[in-house]
Each structure stands twice: as structure tokens, then as C-alpha cells.
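INFO worker-7 received task bundle
INFO bundle size: 2
INFO processing item 0
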Amino acid sequence: MAIKVIVFDFDGTLIDSNQLKYDTFFKLFPSDQFHRNIIADVLKEFLEESRYVILWEIVRRIGHNSREKTESEDLAVKYNDIVVEDAKTCKEIPGAHKTLQVLSNKYHLYLSSTTPQEALEEIVKHRNLDGYFCKIFGYPHNKITSLREIIQRESVNHEEVLVVGDGESDKVSALETGCCFFEIDKDGVLQDVRDYL
């Protein structure tokens, strides 16, 4: 069956923001080895989770038991402020804008990310990408639920949907829903998606 719908991940797929998001977790805590080790361990284990889950786990492991929830929520606000501003201006993955422009003429495009909904919409709008997508899904939506909603909304079969992403969560969501998957590798060239189609 031919592809009719394409669902893009955002960070590491359309914009080169994975490293800046990773580094920002370290900026929120003291730079001593104790904190750095905890942050690195949590990121190794929870990298594909939302910032809320990651920050809660970091705070829990540091041992601030009496104020974990409040502290992690405050840190999430600071994290968001830093990342949103940086994500507005970081480099795009080579060919991202052109790929969206070309593909939006033939396919229905969607965006699915673990970035919080409001922040995601703000970044996408600032980068003039919002006009390419039928709908944008950010946290608290999860990628599997979002794909199921897109399939129902578009009245298509799962094999008519292509998921494009660079992370394990993108691959797993495609596998769980029976959608096709195209992996953006570390070189991140979106022209390859157009060639694939």
C-alpha cells in the first residue's frame, strides 16, 4: 500500500537539538562529580522520556525526598525556558524545511514529540514550520497513542502511515501500531526520506 500520511519526530529529526537538550539537564544542577554522575546515569536510562520524568528521577536520586515533586516541577520550568529559546535558533537537520515543503504537497504531515505541547507549538511556529502539519502532538501525548489517533483521524490503514524519527521511541511506536518506519541516522539527512518515498 502507498504511504498517505507521514508522522515526523522533532528533536534530532527536523532540528539539531538533541545535544542542547541533553546539556541543559547538567546546567540545572551543581557541576560537581556527584551531581554529574547522577544526571548521566538517569539520562542513560530515561533519555527518551519526557523532561518531567527525567528531572523527577534526578531529584529523587539526589535525595531531596521531602520536596521532590515541587523541586522537579520548578526545574522543569527552568529547563523549558532554556531549551525553548535555544531550539528556536539551533540548526535544522539538513534539508528539513525543503523536505516538509515538498512532502506537504503530496502527503498529510503530522508532528509527534515528547516536548511539551505548548513549548513545541511555540518552537515550531517561531521556525515557520507550523503550516506544514495537520496537527502537532506534544507531551503529555505519547507517541503510540498519537499514532492511533492519526490513523483514526485520517481513516487510513496503519501500513499507509510512515513514522520518521531518530529515536527508539519512534521505532517502538511504529512497531506497536504496525506503521512503516524510516530512521534518521546520526548524519541526519532528510533528503533520504524523499528518495525513499
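INFO item 0 finished
INFO processing item 1
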Amino acid sequence: MQHHKDRDIVKILALDYGTKRIGVAISDCLLITAQGQDSIERTDLSRDLEVIAKIIKDNDISEIVIGLPLNMNGTHSLKTKEVVEFMGILTKVTDVPIKTWDERLTSMQAERVMLEGDLSRQKRRKLSDKIAAQLILQNYLDFRKKGS
């Protein structure tokens, strides 16, 4: 096992924070694509954090991006406050840097992707968190590529 080499591998974790589920996506190590993972079914905060900490450890995550739900006019909502509070708690269980990503258009994008895929409403509800996390991450990766 070459541990010194593994450190060069960079993977980004995206979270789409919700009250019932947390959508999860992880980048490939080339930071080109976002792969949706199984969503975390919310139970209680400490268990949710344990699950996230395990995902971070098992996947060698070096950065976390959390979708920030802003109002369409860019102002903060009650949901924004919840996400910011959650981020604050998450920083206590991991030292991986956490960034936010404006997700205003992501849920509409996710809905469109699912409608194009002709999924039933029930399937859409289940998949929307996963797809939202995947879109947050993909948009973030594309933005990073443009910046470099």
C-alpha cells in the first residue's frame, strides 16, 4: 500500500441537505464526473453525522460541497439557516474543508432530468435528493474546471 500516493487523490463529496433525506454524490478522482450515491435517510443528527463521517473516511474525501438553498432573489430563507447550522455542526466532526454552492436552479434541473426520464412521482421523490446532490457536484466541478 502506497499511502503517500493516495494523499494526492482528491475526491469531493456533495451533500443536498434535507429534513427527511440528505442527498449524496462523490466525484471521481479526476474531478470530472459526479456520481450519485444512496441518500442518507435522516434519523437523528448524531447518526447522520456518523454516516457522513464514514463516507468521508471510506472515500478519502478532501473537500465537501453543500447545496445552499437561497431564495430566488438571493436572500436567505429559513432553510438556508438550517443548512448553515448543519455545516457548523459538521465542521466539528471533520476537518475536511466545507464549501457551499448556490443550489437555486438545481432542484428545477433535477425535476427536469427526472421528467425527461419519465419517472413516476414516487420514484422522483426518492431520486430527487440523489440527483440534486449529483447536479450540485457536477455544477461545482464544471465551475472549478473553468476557473483553472
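INFO item 1 finished
INFO post-check item 1: The first strand starts at residue 11 and ends at 17.
INFO post-check item 1: Residues 121-147 form the longest helix (27 residues).
INFO worker-7 idle
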